[in-house]
Amino acid sequence: IEHQLGAYTNCNHGAGLAVIHPVLYRHIYKSGAARFARWAQNVWGIAPKGSDEETAVAGIDALAAFIQEIGLPTTFAELCIPADTDFRAIADSTNVTAGCCKKLSHDEIYEILNMSILFINGSPNKNGNTAALAAELLKNKEYKTLNLTDYTIGSYGQNLPGDGLDTVIGAMRQADTIVIGSPLYWHNICD
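^ that's the sequence the OP posted. Answer follows.
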């Protein structure tokens, strides 16, 4: 994947890998959860969690934190790769091989290159102005929408039955870019 990215954008190979690897691993870890769990334990010293998948995610999070800690880029923007880069052409021209635990399709490579964008809609109106502004901001990008009105979320520290906070946090952890939209109601503004 990174070889094609470099061919199209002239980005540094190691820096490109720093951006791509956490996204790639989040995409494929379920196909090799035991392998990723061993990697998390042996490379990052992660204590086993409740499942191999949870341990794997902790390892991927550790890798992403390490990449950030040592000052490597974590986004294509930091590599000066323009947002209008033809990621479809890059994905379609990538040589597809078996991989470590899953053979990716060109569409999956495209998703990885687009990275995971999550729009969190804080408006009670799912299709209102907040969603429209997000659609304009994210025009020509694939993104997922999480409407907070679909979840019951208690105050911090409460543990209510059916609380959706863990689901929301889980979606945020899976995303590489998070866009938060919240309406501004003039009658709620304090002087």
